[in-house]
Automatic annotation (TrEMBL):
The keyword Phosphoprotein does not apply. It holds the Pfam family Methyltransf_23. GO terms for molecular function: methyltransferase activity. It comes from Bradyrhizobium algeriense. InterPro entries: SAM-dependent_MTases_sf. Transmembrane segments: none annotated. One of its GO terms (biological process) is methylation. Keywords: Methyltransferase, Transferase. This is SAM-dependent methyltransferase.
Amino acid sequence: MIKSKRQITNLRPDFERIYASCIIGAGFFESDDYYRHDQERYWRSLEIFCELDLPRPARILEIGGGQMAVMCSKLFNDECVVGDISDQFIAPIERQNIPFIPYNLMSDEEHSAKGAFDAVVLLEVIEHVPVPAYVLFERIKRLLKPGGILFLTTPNLFRLRNLIRMFLGIEFLDRFLLPQPGQGLGHQLEYSANHLDWQLERAGLSKIFIQHDELGRVGHSSKARLARRLLAPLRLRPIWRDGLVAAARN
């Protein structure tokens, strides 16, 4: 297999076609409106992911969601697998002939897919898990091949939305608790870039990059979209941008 960066420059029309037919209306966890508003986030995440040196094709595990797995399978013929705690939303994955494996980040049990993947992807996942990120990363390391890459996106603790809510005395994190079986959690913890860097280092992963990025977010309501337009100049300061994107090598 050849290791190289993926060429994505001319793939936007293909991405939009696949996204419209395989993501919106496919029966994933979130509403169709959610996926319409977040299309740019998925495109931007894919753009950054394609900057990594990965085999062609690559063996990729996406934990949660499965949208990136669909994109990489369709656009690059990667051998993708989706892992999640529940198979409730497995239908959109099965329709694309993408295998599903039960995988619970809260569990420390060894998995049969040990050392099987060139990359593990987590899009907006770690903020929902009430466990220090380094513990999750140590578990994910077991699934990576030597030299394999962990790629993740997560909200930035210092994003403007959080700073404004904190100034106004409004809670912006969910109650920190251990979930009951089948219970979904809101944001348990959001990380700064320095904190995320520490978590990766503690897990014994070698950082490739951590960057602040808006990730194409546009807001899910008219008020949110207006606020984003008004506050856009402040986001020229990277530390106030909405998201963090990180990649680290096993």
